[in-house]
Amino acid sequence: MQFRTRAIHVGNEKCPETGAVVRPLHFASTFVQPGAGDWGEFDYSRSGNPTRKAFETTLASLEGGCGALAFASGMAATHCAVSLLNSGDQVVAGSDIYGGTYRLLHKVTNRAGIDVTLCNTTDPANLQAAITPATKLVWIESPGNPRMTITDIATCAEIAHEHGALLGVDSTFASPVLTRPLELGADIVMHSATKYLGGHSDLMGGALVVRDEELFDELYFVQNATGAIMGPMEAFLCSRGLKTLELRVREQCRTAAKLAAWLAAHDQVDKVLYPGLTDHPGHGVAAEQMDGGFGAMLTFDLKGDFDATKKFVESTHLFQLAVSLGAVESLIEQPASMSHASYDPADRAKHGITDGMIRLSVGLEAYEDLQADLEQAFAAVTG
Ligand SMILES: *Cc1c(COP(=O)(O)O)cnc(C)c1O
C-alpha cells in the first residue's frame, strides 16, 4: 500500500465490537486480566494503551520501522533515546540541533557523566573527526533550525556504524512524507508530534521509531520505567492528523517553494534560506534525501536592523507571531528575539543567526493571501 493509504488504514482497523470506522478512544488506566499473573494484551496504560498503540502502529508503518513509541512531548522522546547511554559514553550532536535538545544534553544528560560534543554535521567530515570510541549515539537534525541546514543522513549513518554508534535523527521538520531516515540507515527517528504529525496546533506529543526489535525493547523499557507516555486524547488526535499528513505536507511545501522564490526576488530581502533553492548549500543532498518536496519551513534575511525585523514580524496578520511550526496555521517569528533568544549574541553570530532573520512556518492558507500578508508587512517596515 502507498504511504497515504497506510496513513488511513494501518492501525485504524474498524472497531471489532461495533463496526465503527473510527476506533473508540480508550481512556481506561487499567484493564481486567484473564487471570492472576496471566497478562492480557493490555494491563496498565503506562505500559500500553489501545489508542496510543493505534497511533504507534500507523507511524511505524509510515517510517518503515518495526515499532514506534509515543511520548508526552518531543523532548520526552529525545530524553528516552539519550537515556540509553551510560556514564562514560559520549553523544555527538549536530551544532544546529533544536534549542531544547541542546539544553537537555548540556544541562541534564551531562549530569550522568555523559560527554556531549557538538559538530557541524552539514559536512560529514566533521562528524568523522568528532567521533571517538566512547561515542554511543550520534544525534542529527535535517533540515536544521533556523538556517534550514541539510545533513546527509546516509553518510552519517555509515560513519556512526563504523564506530559502533547509533544514529538518531530528529526528523520533525521533514516529517515521514519527505524523509524516512530508517531507510537511509538511521537507527532511531524522533518526532515532535506537536508539529506536522498532529498538524493542528492542538496537542503536545513526541515519538521514537526504530527498525530493530532489540533496540525497540530497550527504548520501551526506558519509556515504561520513566513514564512520559502520550495520553489517549493526544494519540487519537495524532492518528487523525496522520490521515491527512501527506496532503498537508505536500501542499504546504508547494506554497513554501512559491513564497521562497518570490521572497528571493524581493528588493527588501537580503537572502532566503530554503533547501529547494538551487543556491542553498544543502540543495544537492536535500534533492537526494527528501522525497518530492523541500519542506514548508523557510528563513529569510530582511534588509533591515533588529527593530525593523521586530516590526515586520509584528505586522503580519495571517502569519501569526508564535514559535512552533508544522500546523495548518502559518506562523512567523524572529529567531534573534524568540526561538534563539537564549543564545548569547556571540553564539548567535557563530550560528549565523542574524538580527534581520525571519522564520516562517508555512501553513495551508492560500498562497495569494500569504503573499499579500507579507507584502503589507514589507510596506509597514518602510512606511
Ligand atoms: C518542537 C521541536 C522539538 C521538541 O518537541 P516538543 O514537542 O516541543 O517537546 C524537538 N525538535 C524539533 C526540531 C522541534 O521543532
Number of strands: 12
Rg, Å, rounded: 21 Å
Note the run of SSEs as H and E.
Answer: HHEHEHEHEHEHEEHHHEHEHEEHEH
What are the low-pLDDT stretches, counting only 5+ consecutive residues below 50?
Answer: none
- C-alpha end-to-end distance: 54 Å
Strand order of the largest sheet: 1-7-6-5-4-2-3
Could you explain how this protein is built, in words?
The protein is globular. It has 14 helices and 12 strands. The mean pLDDT is 96. It folds into 2 domains: 3-243, Type I PLP-dependent aspartate aminotransferase-like (Major domain) (Aspartate Aminotransferase, domain 2, 3-Layer(aba) Sandwich); 246-382, Aspartate Aminotransferase, domain 1. The strands form 2 sheets. Strands 1-7-6-5-4-2-3 form a 7-stranded mixed β-sheet, sandwiched between helices. It has a 5-stranded mixed β-sheet with strand order 8-9-12-11-10. By secondary structure, it is α/β, with parallel strands linked by helices. The structure holds pyridoxal-5'-phosphate (PLP).
Topology:
Layout lengths: L2 H7 L40 H14 L3 E5 L2 H9 L7 E5 L4 H9 L7 E5 L4 H7 L4 E7 L11 H10 L3 E5 L4 H4 L9 E5 L13 E5 L2 H14 L5 H12 L1 H20 L4 E5 L9 H7 L7 E6 L3 H8 L6 E2 L9 E3 L11 H6 L6 E5 L5 H16 L1
Parallel strand pairs: 2-3, 2-4, 4-5, 5-6, 10-11
Antiparallel strand pairs: 1-7, 6-7, 8-9, 9-12, 11-12
Helix pairs in contact: 1-2, 2-9, 3-4, 12-14
Pyridoxal-5'-phosphate (PLP) binds next to helix 3 and helix 4.
